[in-house]
Specification:
Blueprint: E1 8-12, H1 27-38, E2 44-45, E3 51-57, E4 64-70, H2 78-87, E5 95-101, E6 109-113, H3 121-130, E7 136-141, H4 151-155, H5 161-184, H6 186-193
Parallel strand pairs: 1-4, 1-5, 5-7
Antiparallel strand pairs: 2-3, 3-4, 6-7
Helix pairs in contact: 1-5, 2-3, 5-6
Subunit structure: Monomer.
Keywords: Cytoplasm, Hydrolase, RNA-binding, tRNA-binding
Family: Belongs to the PTH family.
Length: about 200
Amino acid sequence: MTDEAGPWLVVGLGNPGREYANNRHNVGFMVADLLAARVGAKFGRHKRAMAEAAEGRLGFGGPKLVLLKPLTYMNLSGGPVAGLAQFHKIPPAHVIAVHDELDIPYGQVRVKCGGGEGGHNGLRSMSKSLGTKDYVRVRFGIGRPPGRQDPADYVLSDFSPSERKELEFLVDRAADVVESVVLKGVEPTQNLYHGG
């Protein structure tokens, strides 16, 4: 069990720029934006990293959250993550990556600690820069591409109209999962949210 009193680094993985804003690959940014709104924080350019960052507390006197959206594009996300973790003295056990996940059906949010990257370049970059895979992942299911569509094209396309009907609810759920990990831990969060 980790020390709940220390700050947490919550990394929303995505690509900067308006053209990527509504892509499946950018769901991490969407969750980070919602978390910032919940803690009353605004994103601003960080002086020491190629990233936008925001800080706030979960509840009155609760744990400190450092929210991060790397501006380096997905494949190079690890540099800003490691830089901010070092700057705030946050250990990997208190780092949470929020990302899209092809291997989970759309509509499901899962959490795990450590493990492989499943071909996700943002996670691969984070693991390399942090020097470990032992950080928390909040995995937002986007499902597999239809037919023979290339997964790379699929993740860089926008959510479909039918998916968008549920998107706000699911981003909300993913933000709840992040908060639960910080306040309760990974295992209790899995027990709470992995039922459906």
